Amino acid sequence: MSEPLIEVTGIGKTYGSVIALRDVSTVVRPGEVTCVLGDNGAGKSTLIKILAGVHQHDSGEFRVEGEPVRFTSPRDALDRGIATVYQDLAVVPLMSVWRNFFLGSEPTRGFGPFRLLDRRKGRTTTKRALADMGIDLRDVEQPVGTLSGGERQCVAIARAVYFGAKVLILDEPTAALGVKQAGVVLKYVAQARDRGLGVVLITHNPHHAYPVGDRFLLLKRGAALGGYEKSEIDLPELTRQMAGGAELAALEHELRSMESA
């Protein structure tokens, strides 16, 4: 089995008296997708912000390629090959696809104060990088805001892969998408996995997680409900646990008792 790219053990985070995350452990391996599932308030956002360098953990251990780390900024995480694609994607809607692809790292030509934006290289590189991921856009000069939600997610994924990410963290990439567009995004998640990246997929939808996931971490109110390899859990059981199977059964029993009263 390959060495983990990321390993967190007993990770915890508090904000004053509020416990946002408590004793959570999981691993992210190259060529695998670790899915983190949970409803709103489960602790998913806190976990990815620790992995992405936005916040530091208060307890537990966070290792990257076997080395204990404590990131002080997202730049620290990027320097270690951890790229995060947030739900809002951090794109400029009126700017072209290729300018968004290189945002902050635009190619230039010339020297010193005479450096100019190399538009041809930017367009060509973007088109090639997207094609390598199987993404065929009509025109990389079109504003990124004209793309569908699924296409924008795919551009963000391709950008992270191009700039050398080893770990790709995706924050609810299918949350606002229809069935077809969600399927497109999941296809590119699988492609990133097949290129050897370790992927962390954050979602509240087990039907999106299960087809691409290799490992599943279920969170509830900041604590782990369970961690499973794919061979250890099937989709119906994953869905039941996500939906709060015991709570639903208790509610159903209570409703039946009220009807018979």
Helix/strand layout:
Elements (H helix, E strand, L loop, with lengths): L5 E10 L2 E11 L4 E5 L6 H8 L7 E6 L2 E2 L5 H6 L2 E4 L11 H5 L6 E2 L6 E2 L1 H14 L16 H14 L4 E5 L7 H16 L3 E6 L2 H7 L2 E6 L2 E7 L5 H8 L2 H16 L1
Helix pairs in contact: 4-5, 5-6
Could you characterize the architecture of this molecule?
The chain has 261 residues and is α/β, with parallel strands linked by helices. The chain has a single domain (6-93, 152-260), classed as 3-Layer(aba) Sandwich (Rossmann fold), CATH 3.40.50.300. Helix content is 36%, strand content 25%. The chain is built from nine helices and twelve strands. The protein has helices at residues 44-51, 74-79, 97-101, 119-132, 149-162, 179-194, 206-212, 235-242, 245-260; strands at 6-15, 18-28, 33-37, 59-64, 67-68, 82-85, 108-109, 116-117, 167-171, 198-203, 215-220, 223-229. It has a six-stranded mixed β-sheet, with helices on both faces. Strands 2-1-4-5 form a four-stranded antiparallel β-sheet, with helices on one face. Strands 7-8 form a two-stranded antiparallel sheet. α5 (149-162) packs parallel to α6. The mean pLDDT is 85. GO terms for molecular function: ATP binding; ATP hydrolysis activity. Keywords: ATP-binding, Nucleotide-binding, Sugar transport, Transport. InterPro entries: AAA+_ATPase, ABC_carbohydrate_import_ATPase, ABC_transporter-like_ATP-bd, ABC_transporter-like_CS, P-loop_NTPase.
